[in-house]
Amino acid sequence: DEDKARLRAVSSEHASDWLNCVPLPSMSLKLNRQTLRIAVALRLGAKICRSHKCHCINKDTKQPNTVDIKGLHGLSCASAGGKGRIARHDRANDLIHRALASANYHCILEPTGLCRDEKRPDGFSLYPYTEGKILAWDYTCRNTLADSYKVHTAVEVGYAAMQGEKDKYDNYKDLVNDNYHVVPIAHKTMGSWAPDSLKFIKDLGSRITEATGEKRAKSFLFQSLSMNLQRGNALCVMGTVAHHRKLEEIYNLGTIQTQEQES
To answer: pLDDT-derived band of residue 257, with 50, 70 and 90 as boundaries?
Structure first.
């Protein structure tokens, strides 16, 4: 199930756009050595690290959780992957915010007072986006290979993202009733998109092209979001290492460089 879910996800539409990026550091389209190694290993289902103990504690056994050689525990671990998920989430919203500004739709991030309760979307536009409705979006990224999803994602591409999309619609149904154009932007750790999310990003890319004349705007937008996903995944995976241990002890980050020097 795990391999089927991974292969279906990485072969879906726009899931592998990070592989098509021209490595330009000025546009944040270049991955460093350790992030690239982890991104490729996750895509191939290859070994990432040595088996080790995470610094999180299992609620049932009261012992540290074990991270296997594929390092997938970090993608689901609330403790170890927390910083990576927060960084990935914030950067994705920043990219969407900038993209909307490029298309001449000025927005505000994390607005307050839209919902009757304490819920708030990640951003909303100051002027109508479509059909006279104000845009409100909320980004989420679900783990393709989580135990609760992989049985379904092995059969249906984007199942986890579609569940995230459905949850966001339910979460902001008050805004839908108030005539807002609510868009959940649901991504998966292996790169696949939920249907409505994919449609929105394509539409946004087309609007940027209309506003700026840049024909590659849609590709750049997908590539930037895809690169951000790989960086977030790498941070989550590496977050399982205890603070007092060096990353080189677990991930052998210097192996490639050493082999190049020897050759």
So the answer is: very low
